[in-house]
Amino acid sequence: MAAMTDVDGIEWRVSPGLTAYDAALATMEARAAAVLAGEARELIWLLEHPPIYTAGTSASDADLIDPRFPVVATGRGGKHTYHGPGQRIVYMVLDLNRRGRDVRCFVHAVEGWAIAALAEYGIAAFRAEGRVGIWTRDGGSEAKIGAIGVRVRRWITLHGMAVNVAPDLNHFNGIVPCGLAEYPVTSLAALGRDPALATFDDALALTVPAFLSSLSCTAEGPGLENEA
Protein backbone atom coordinates (compact mmCIF):
# COMPACT_ATOMS: atom_id res chain seq x y z
CA MET A 1 0.00 0.00 0.00
CA ALA A 2 1.26 3.47 -0.82
CA ALA A 3 2.54 5.59 2.05
CA MET A 4 0.77 8.93 2.15
CA THR A 5 1.36 12.13 4.06
CA ASP A 6 0.93 15.85 3.50
CA VAL A 7 3.34 18.56 2.33
CA ASP A 8 2.05 22.13 2.22
CA GLY A 9 -1.46 20.80 1.61
CA ILE A 10 -0.22 18.51 -1.18
CA GLU A 11 -0.61 14.75 -0.93
CA TRP A 12 2.85 13.13 -0.79
CA ARG A 13 2.49 9.53 -1.93
CA VAL A 14 5.18 6.85 -2.04
CA SER A 15 4.19 3.62 -3.80
CA PRO A 16 6.16 0.45 -3.02
CA GLY A 17 7.10 -2.06 -5.69
CA LEU A 18 6.56 -1.44 -9.39
CA THR A 19 3.61 0.53 -10.77
CA ALA A 20 2.55 -0.21 -14.35
CA TYR A 21 3.03 2.82 -16.58
CA ASP A 22 -0.49 2.78 -18.02
CA ALA A 23 -2.02 2.55 -14.55
CA ALA A 24 0.10 5.47 -13.35
CA LEU A 25 -0.87 7.55 -16.37
CA ALA A 26 -4.58 6.87 -15.77
CA THR A 27 -4.21 7.84 -12.11
CA MET A 28 -2.44 11.08 -13.04
CA GLU A 29 -5.04 12.00 -15.64
CA ALA A 30 -7.90 11.38 -13.23
CA ARG A 31 -6.20 13.33 -10.47
CA ALA A 32 -5.46 16.27 -12.78
CA ALA A 33 -9.15 16.48 -13.74
CA ALA A 34 -10.15 16.35 -10.08
CA VAL A 35 -7.63 19.04 -9.09
CA LEU A 36 -8.91 21.30 -11.88
CA ALA A 37 -12.47 20.77 -10.68
CA GLY A 38 -11.51 21.56 -7.10
CA GLU A 39 -12.40 18.04 -6.01
CA ALA A 40 -8.95 16.79 -4.94
CA ARG A 41 -5.66 17.97 -3.51
CA GLU A 42 -2.53 18.36 -5.57
CA LEU A 43 -0.27 15.32 -5.69
CA ILE A 44 3.44 14.53 -5.59
CA TRP A 45 3.83 10.83 -6.28
CA LEU A 46 7.04 8.82 -5.89
CA LEU A 47 7.14 5.44 -7.62
CA GLU A 48 9.03 2.97 -9.83
CA HIS A 49 7.99 1.46 -13.15
CA PRO A 50 8.73 -1.93 -14.68
CA PRO A 51 11.25 -1.61 -17.56
CA ILE A 52 9.71 0.49 -20.33
CA TYR A 53 10.68 3.00 -23.00
CA THR A 54 8.45 6.03 -23.38
CA ALA A 55 8.29 8.25 -26.44
CA GLY A 56 7.52 11.92 -26.02
CA THR A 57 5.88 14.20 -28.55
CA SER A 58 9.15 14.84 -30.43
CA ALA A 59 10.46 11.25 -30.37
CA SER A 60 12.19 9.92 -33.49
CA ASP A 61 12.15 6.28 -34.58
CA ALA A 62 15.86 6.61 -35.31
CA ASP A 63 16.50 6.87 -31.56
CA LEU A 64 14.88 3.49 -30.88
CA ILE A 65 17.85 1.15 -31.30
CA ASP A 66 16.72 -2.05 -29.59
CA PRO A 67 13.09 -2.13 -28.36
CA ARG A 68 13.79 -4.85 -25.81
CA PHE A 69 11.10 -3.41 -23.53
CA PRO A 70 7.60 -2.14 -24.33
CA VAL A 71 7.54 1.23 -26.08
CA VAL A 72 4.71 3.55 -25.11
CA ALA A 73 3.82 6.86 -26.72
CA THR A 74 3.05 9.49 -24.12
CA GLY A 75 1.75 13.04 -24.11
CA ARG A 76 4.72 14.57 -22.33
CA GLY A 77 7.25 16.63 -24.22
CA GLY A 78 10.60 15.26 -25.29
CA LYS A 79 12.05 12.21 -27.01
CA HIS A 80 12.66 8.63 -25.88
CA THR A 81 13.55 7.79 -22.32
CA TYR A 82 13.81 4.69 -20.16
CA HIS A 83 12.05 3.95 -16.90
CA GLY A 84 12.73 0.94 -14.73
CA PRO A 85 13.48 -0.47 -11.28
CA GLY A 86 15.97 1.55 -9.28
CA GLN A 87 14.92 4.81 -10.87
CA ARG A 88 12.94 7.25 -8.75
CA ILE A 89 10.01 8.62 -10.69
CA VAL A 90 8.42 11.77 -9.28
CA TYR A 91 5.07 12.64 -10.81
CA MET A 92 3.57 16.02 -9.99
CA VAL A 93 -0.06 17.02 -10.35
CA LEU A 94 0.18 20.66 -9.33
CA ASP A 95 -2.12 23.60 -9.98
CA LEU A 96 -0.20 26.41 -11.63
CA ASN A 97 -3.35 28.51 -11.59
CA ARG A 98 -2.56 29.12 -7.92
CA ARG A 99 1.21 28.58 -7.94
CA GLY A 100 2.18 30.70 -10.95
CA ARG A 101 1.22 30.37 -14.61
CA ASP A 102 4.73 30.09 -15.95
CA VAL A 103 5.74 26.77 -17.49
CA ARG A 104 9.37 27.72 -17.96
CA CYS A 105 9.55 28.69 -14.32
CA PHE A 106 7.97 25.36 -13.37
CA VAL A 107 10.47 23.32 -15.39
CA HIS A 108 13.35 25.37 -14.02
CA ALA A 109 12.06 24.77 -10.49
CA VAL A 110 11.80 21.00 -11.05
CA GLU A 111 15.38 20.99 -12.34
CA GLY A 112 16.43 22.91 -9.25
CA TRP A 113 14.67 20.41 -6.99
CA ALA A 114 16.56 17.50 -8.57
CA ILE A 115 19.85 19.39 -8.28
CA ALA A 116 19.19 20.24 -4.62
CA ALA A 117 18.27 16.65 -3.75
CA LEU A 118 21.43 15.34 -5.42
CA ALA A 119 23.47 17.92 -3.50
CA GLU A 120 22.37 16.15 -0.31
CA TYR A 121 24.55 13.27 -1.55
CA GLY A 122 27.46 15.59 -2.27
CA ILE A 123 26.81 15.33 -6.00
CA ALA A 124 27.32 18.52 -7.98
CA ALA A 125 24.53 18.27 -10.55
CA PHE A 126 23.82 21.04 -13.04
CA ARG A 127 21.85 22.21 -16.04
CA ALA A 128 23.65 22.32 -19.40
CA GLU A 129 22.53 25.06 -21.76
CA GLY A 130 21.19 23.67 -25.03
CA ARG A 131 21.17 20.14 -23.65
CA VAL A 132 18.22 18.47 -22.00
CA GLY A 133 18.51 16.75 -18.65
CA ILE A 134 20.13 16.96 -15.24
CA TRP A 135 23.87 16.45 -15.52
CA THR A 136 26.86 15.63 -13.35
CA ARG A 137 30.41 14.40 -13.84
CA ASP A 138 31.29 10.72 -13.87
CA GLY A 139 34.99 9.96 -14.23
CA GLY A 140 35.65 13.41 -15.60
CA SER A 141 32.98 13.19 -18.32
CA GLU A 142 29.59 14.83 -18.27
CA ALA A 143 26.82 12.27 -17.81
CA LYS A 144 23.07 12.47 -17.47
CA ILE A 145 21.66 11.48 -14.10
CA GLY A 146 18.08 12.74 -14.40
CA ALA A 147 15.37 13.54 -16.92
CA ILE A 148 12.43 15.90 -16.79
CA GLY A 149 9.38 15.58 -19.00
CA VAL A 150 6.21 17.47 -18.22
CA ARG A 151 2.88 18.30 -19.72
CA VAL A 152 0.70 21.20 -18.61
CA ARG A 153 -2.98 21.12 -19.44
CA ARG A 154 -5.22 23.99 -18.37
CA TRP A 155 -2.39 24.91 -16.01
CA ILE A 156 -2.44 21.55 -14.22
CA THR A 157 0.89 19.71 -14.44
CA LEU A 158 1.36 16.04 -15.33
CA HIS A 159 4.39 13.73 -15.48
CA GLY A 160 7.54 15.06 -13.82
CA MET A 161 11.10 13.84 -13.34
CA ALA A 162 13.12 10.63 -13.19
CA VAL A 163 16.39 10.37 -11.28
CA ASN A 164 18.73 7.42 -11.68
CA VAL A 165 19.31 6.07 -8.21
CA ALA A 166 20.33 2.47 -8.95
CA PRO A 167 18.81 1.30 -12.27
CA ASP A 168 20.47 -1.14 -14.65
CA LEU A 169 22.25 1.38 -16.85
CA ASN A 170 22.56 -1.20 -19.65
CA HIS A 171 18.82 -0.83 -20.15
CA PHE A 172 19.41 2.65 -21.58
CA ASN A 173 21.32 1.07 -24.48
CA GLY A 174 18.11 0.24 -26.31
CA ILE A 175 17.49 3.92 -27.06
CA VAL A 176 19.33 7.16 -27.62
CA PRO A 177 18.31 8.77 -24.32
CA CYS A 178 16.63 12.07 -25.13
CA GLY A 179 18.34 12.04 -28.53
CA LEU A 180 21.81 12.72 -27.09
CA ALA A 181 24.01 9.89 -28.35
CA GLU A 182 27.33 11.48 -27.42
CA TYR A 183 26.73 11.54 -23.65
CA PRO A 184 26.45 8.59 -21.23
CA VAL A 185 24.01 8.12 -18.39
CA THR A 186 24.99 7.57 -14.78
CA SER A 187 23.37 6.95 -11.40
CA LEU A 188 23.85 7.48 -7.70
CA ALA A 189 24.98 3.86 -7.39
CA ALA A 190 27.50 4.24 -10.23
CA LEU A 191 28.91 7.27 -8.42
CA GLY A 192 29.35 5.24 -5.24
CA ARG A 193 26.43 6.73 -3.31
CA ASP A 194 23.73 5.02 -1.25
CA PRO A 195 21.55 3.11 -3.76
CA ALA A 196 18.47 2.97 -1.49
CA LEU A 197 15.42 4.73 -2.91
CA ALA A 198 14.22 5.54 0.61
CA THR A 199 17.40 7.55 1.21
CA PHE A 200 16.84 9.57 -1.95
CA ASP A 201 13.22 10.06 -0.96
CA ASP A 202 14.44 11.64 2.26
CA ALA A 203 16.55 14.05 0.19
CA LEU A 204 13.52 14.92 -1.93
CA ALA A 205 11.39 15.53 1.16
CA LEU A 206 14.08 17.75 2.69
CA THR A 207 14.32 19.93 -0.42
CA VAL A 208 10.66 20.05 -1.50
CA PRO A 209 9.75 23.20 0.51
CA ALA A 210 12.28 25.25 -1.46
CA PHE A 211 10.95 23.77 -4.71
CA LEU A 212 7.39 24.75 -3.87
CA SER A 213 8.47 28.25 -2.86
CA SER A 214 10.23 28.69 -6.20
CA LEU A 215 6.95 28.19 -8.10
CA SER A 216 5.68 31.67 -7.24
CA CYS A 217 6.00 33.10 -10.75
CA THR A 218 3.72 35.53 -12.55
CA ALA A 219 4.62 35.57 -16.26
CA GLU A 220 2.68 33.21 -18.50
CA GLY A 221 4.40 30.62 -20.64
CA PRO A 222 3.25 28.06 -23.23
CA GLY A 223 0.97 25.18 -22.31
CA LEU A 224 3.46 22.42 -23.05
CA GLU A 225 7.14 22.04 -22.22
CA ASN A 226 9.55 19.54 -23.70
CA GLU A 227 11.51 16.99 -21.77
CA ALA A 228 14.58 18.30 -20.04
Description:
The chain contains 4 helices and 11 strands; from the N terminus they run ββαβββββααββββα. It has 228 residues and is of the alpha+beta class. The strands form 2 sheets. The protein has an 8-stranded mixed β-sheet, sandwiched between helices. A 3-stranded mixed β-sheet has the order 5-4-6, with no helix packed on it. Helix 3 crosses helix 4. The C terminus is likely disordered.
Structural class designation: alpha+beta
Number of strands: 11
Radius of gyration: 16 Å
Low-confidence stretches: 218-228
- In one word, what is the shape? globular
Q: Share of helix among residues? A: 10-25%
Distance between the termini: 31 Å
Quaternary: single chain
Provide the succession of SSEs: EEHEEEEEHHEEEEH
User: What's the rounded overall pLDDT mean?
Assistant: 90
List the helices and strands and how they pair.
Blueprint (H helix, E strand, L loop, with lengths): L2 E5 L2 E9 L2 H16 L6 E6 L3 E4 L15 E3 L6 E4 L3 E7 L2 H4 L3 H17 L6 E3 L2 E8 L2 E13 L2 E9 L32 H17 L15
Parallel strand pairs: 2-3, 4-5
Antiparallel strand pairs: 1-2, 3-7, 4-6, 7-11, 8-9, 9-10, 10-11
Helix pairs in contact: 3-4
